[in-house]
């Protein structure tokens, strides 16, 4: 082969190599592009998942420890009718069931529930205050009802209702009404007051709306922010004949539809003969264990915080230290609050928890090299412990003065929380370990950290504005 032919074959081989190299580059670029798209999709999904958790959590303002109430004030000419509803969640109901068992035979009969409801309604008379133009107005008890409904962990929910009336005597056709509820204001839960008028009276000014926002403490889904905390109401009433005519024309179906329904389930139903049995020590412990699992499983803010701690850990030993520090800290404040040695700082707890979540997300983004994960988890765990306590501190503290079961119940509740946390960690750790070997993990972790930060800030704004 001559020099010319050799040159031709060299040129052909070079061209083939260039074409193959070009195809390889295209394939590599295609793979890289697909990996980039996959990485972005996974990261975006993680971020949206964490962010959506915040809104899912805020749709459930109540819990197993709450005591919820509603007061409806209806003014009809010179008469006021007050219907007071109270809905006790599973844990408060557990202890009230023991109080209702007067003869201590282990079963609360219908007669005992009726006596309990009567005593409750009569105690309210001294704690509900009415004033008209600064002068006290006496309330009279008309009737009371009690009902039991099924709750979580095979426990029951107690509903109480009291009907009261008062005569509004005033020398003027325009008067100012003031209402105040002093019945256990320290208990956490939904506190709602609404005021409306029927024929004979016009409300010209009111600090409370004229509608039922929870449909008699049965629906809370419409509220994605903190539940109302209303214990007072002020209204200016116009009793003139013209006002009566206006009111007659304005008696709309919306007002009529918002009247509080009478409970028709459980012991409140006509001819009901149901009863409830107080739980033994072992049954209480098992119930509190399940309530602890339920509490943490539906506590999205605590779960997002725990997820942020998982992202912060660099190794399995550090992860164990971080989760253990969080566990010890919130167990400590939960026990102190239940023992009445420390009082949860009320309105500051929930916004503070939101800030801890936002801070963990920020640390993951900015100070990834920081080694204070365990100390961070311990300090913020003290704050989260107050969030776990809630009304549980009140109910267990009350039980402490009557029997020794409170410590077992507190331990069982806390073990339930830890059991679910350990289950979650055992599932997440292998997934995170696998994800760390993927090319897209760094970007996904940054997006997820942004989700944790955003969720914490969103919760903080919702809990401080309302």
Note down, in words, how this protein is organized:
With 466 residues, the protein is an alpha+beta fold. The chain is built from 13 helices and ten strands. It has helices spanning 3-58, 90-100, 110-125, 241-249, 253-257, 281-297, 300-312, 316-338, 349-366, 373-389, 391-400, 405-435, 441-465, and strands at 67-76, 79-88, 128-132, 135-137, 140-150, 156-167, 174-181, 191-197, 202-206, 232-238. The strands form two sheets. Strands 5-6-2-1-8 form a five-stranded mixed beta sheet. It has a five-stranded antiparallel beta sheet with strand order 4-3-7-10-9. Strand 1 (67-76) and strand 2 (79-88) form a beta hairpin. The protein is globular, with a radius of gyration of 31 Å.
Write down the Rg. 31 Å
What is the molecular shape?
globular
Main-sheet strand order equals 5-6-2-1-8
Strand content: 15-25%
Main sheet characteristics: 5 strands, mixed
Strand-and-helix sequence, N→C? Answer: HEEHHEEEEEEEEHHHHHHHHHH
Strand element count: 10
Question: In whole angstroms, how far apart are the ends?
Answer: 91 Å
Percentage of residues assigned to helices? 40-55%
Structural class: alpha+beta
Query: Low-confidence parts lasting 5 or more residues at pLDDT below 50?
Result: 41-61, 242-274
- H/I helix tally: 13
Averaged pLDDT, please? 74
